[in-house]
Amino acid sequence: MEDIKIIDLTPENIEDYGVCGYKDVQKHVELRRKIQWFKEYYQKGLRIKALVSETGGYQGMLEYMPGEYAHRPVVADGYMFIQCIFVGFRNEFKGKGYASAMIDACIEDAKEARMKGVAVVTRKGPFMANRDIFIKKGFVPVDKEEPDFELLALKFDPDAKDPRFRSSIRVNRDRYPEGLTIFRSPQCPYSEKNVREIMETAREKYGLSPRLIELEDAESVQDSPCAFGTFCIVYEGRVISNHPISNGRFQNIMEKIKR
């Protein structure tokens, strides 16, 4: 499609384009939180490339930042870390090579910054990058974390130390052996409305007193009890959701647990 272009979001233009499909700053608190977070970490190397069509509007994005600030529980200092990538709210924008082009741009940025390479966490399912596109680019698996998370790396220096998941992930779950605890970060905007509804359902339907932990910086996200990092729900010491979910999905999970 000829009307598509890749835009570099900046603190000056992010409100014009929005993020992740959210565009109304006045209406969406999740967008305001995301923009505030973006402006803070932009100074530390965070970059977002948005895929924008004149006819279709916002149709994708790639988000990456230096590994020391990665919003995943990883040790990836010296690597550029990809946190989010998607293309195509509408099917006609999928399969056109746009995701590949954005990844190439990230790789070039990492090389220009003389970094060790590029890293990304993948898994099957929603909210995560598909591993196949990265494997085709030369990324290789370097670490795994339950239930099915995989850390991939494209190393510019073969002698560089591999990035890895933090060994504290599973230990951190032991801090929450009782009740329902929800973790979220402004990095991922798909949690504002759903978390509010989930907490209400937890109280009214299941008689729980849910605890909400706001992960407000990279350090707290890297201390997360699940590999997704920026969202997690722990119930009685067990991770019951590794990524943002709807209130309906939460109820389905709880009904299975309560049987």
Layout of SSEs?
Layout: E1 4-8, H1 14-17, H2 29-42, E2 47-53, E3 57-66, E4 74-75, E5 79-87, H3 98-112, E6 117-122, H4 131-136, E7 140-145, E8 149-155, E9 164-165, H5 169-173, E10 180-184, H6 192-204, E11 211-214, H7 218-222, E12 231-235, E13 238-241, H8 247-258
Parallel strand pairs: 5-6, 10-11
Antiparallel strand pairs: 1-2, 2-3, 3-5, 4-9, 6-8, 7-8, 10-12, 12-13
Helix pairs in contact: 6-8
What percentage of residues falls in helices of 4 or more residues?
25-40%
CATH class of the largest domain: Alpha Beta
Q: Are there runs of 5+ residues with pLDDT below 50, and where? A: none
Chain-averaged pLDDT: 89
Explain how this protein is built.
The protein is an alpha+beta fold and 259 residues long. It has 2 domains: 4-165, Gcn5-related N-acetyltransferase (GNAT) (Aminopeptidase), CATH 3.40.630.30; 169-258, 3-Layer(aba) Sandwich (Glutaredoxin), CATH 3.40.30. Helices cover 29% and strands 28% of the residues. It is built from 8 helices and 13 strands. The protein has helices at 14-17, 29-42, 98-112, 131-136, 169-173, 192-204, 218-222, 247-258; strands at residues 4-8, 47-53, 57-66, 74-75, 79-87, 117-122, 140-145, 149-155, 164-165, 180-184, 211-214, 231-235, 238-241. Strands 1-2-3-5-6-8-7 form a 7-stranded mixed beta sheet, sandwiched between helices. A 4-stranded mixed beta sheet has the order 11-10-12-13, with helices on one face. The longest helix is centred in the middle third of the chain and has 15 residues, at 98-112. The radius of gyration is 18 Å and the shape is globular.
